[in-house]
Structures are given as C-alpha cells and as structure tokens.
Sequence to fold (256 residues):
Amino acid sequence: MKKIFVMIMTIFIAMGLLAGCGNKKPTERVLRFGTEPTFAPFEFQKEGSKEYTGFDMDLAQAIGKKIGAKVEIVSMGFDGLIPALNAGNIDAIAAGMSITPERAKNVEFSVPYYQSGLAVMVKKNNKMIKGIGDLKGKKIAVQIGTTGAMEAHKISQAEIVEFNTNTEAALELKNGGVDAVINDLPVVAYFLHQGGGSAYAKIVGKTVSAEDYGIAVKKGNKKLAEEINKAVADLKKDGEYAKIYKKWFGDIDIAK
Ligand code: GLN
Fold:
C-alpha cells in the first residue's frame, strides 16, 4: 500500500515538474552592479527617493541594455565592494572606482570610462590651507577604502578620520571636527555647486592626482570585462555616452 502511494506521489511530482518546465520563460540574464551611493553625481539617492540615480547608474543600465541583461543595483559600503565581487555576491562594480595597480591585482577592470582626480576641500574661511602641501599634521576626513584615504595616509603626522560614507566626511568638516576632506574632484565640485556645500566649504590647490574610473568585474572574468568594454565603446560611438555625460556634467568636455 505504502509503495503504491509513494509511486503515485512520484508520478504526480514528476508531472508537476514537467508542466513547470513547459511554462518557464527563458531565464533573463541579470547583472548585479555593486555601488556605494553617497557619491553624487555618480551614484546617489535624490532626497526622499529610495532609487539610485547618477552617471554610473545610467551607464550601468546602458551597458546592461547593450549586453542584453537586466541590471540590478546592490548598495553597500565602498570597502565592501571588492570582497562582494570576489564572493560572487555581485557581478560588477559601478562606483566611481579608480583603476589602481593594487586593485587590479584583485579585480578585472574595464577600459577607463571617466577621467577623475582628487581634490582637497576645506572650510570657506580657512586661509592657512592652500593645498595638499599644507595638510602636514592636520586632521583629515576621508571615506574608508578610497584613493582619497590612501593619499591622506601618505601625509606625515596627519590624523586621518575614516568614515563609511562621503556624507559623514563632509559633515565632519562642517562641524569643525576636521581641517580638510580629501575626495574625488568631480564629487567635491558637484557637492559645492549642487549639494549646498559652497555655503561653508571650498576647494583648495591643484588636483592632487589623475585617476581613471573603471567598471570592475571578478578577477579572471575576462569574458564579462570584454562584453563591458564593447558596450562602453558602442555607447561612445552611438552618442549614448555623450548623452549621459551631458545629463550629469553639462557641456564641459572633460571625459576621456
Ligand atoms: N575614486 C575613488 C576610489 O576609487 C573614490 C570612489 C568612491 O568613493 N566611490 O577610491
């Protein structure tokens, strides 16, 4: 009796599985892009909105469209992005991530898609600090795991305060907890002009270093890196990249 019952159940389950297969749509390819969304205008949340917006977000969507994949954005701390990529929790990083030789040991970078650099931001009324050369022995706020943090650590006798987000680093300057912030130039410039930062802060000195942003994928995943490279090249050719660039940066042509 028991045997017959088991047999009947097995047949039912098998039929169910077969029926399920028949109805299944071909699975859509999904690309999970990791980001850290306190980096306007590259990735951020507009006030009152949960959606991630910005240059990188538009670029990621456009890349997904070219590749034929649905794009999902996964938000996390900047210092968690490369570990998440290596653990397979995300497929790519779109986070204004600068291509550096150290990072290139652990990830595969796409072709550069944006030329950037670092800037020093101080309080508007600060007359002592005129550039990175004046930061010796000073208190500097940075975002953890960034090239800004790496640059700050090279300055002798400086006290570095590391924050999880750029928002907190800027706030610390506003509150007088630090003398300066080191962060990416386009982000600082956007913060001053669009984010209300010019009320209390300014950029001093020359651009500290030239850096290129790249999309990172898991080390060894040359196939995905090549697909992304081709997508970026196509977006540059068909004018889509220029459109996205114009949307976030206006007409100034500093993109490479
Ligand atoms: N470009 C910098 C870096 O790669 C900062 C990136 C960021 O804060 N999102 O470290």
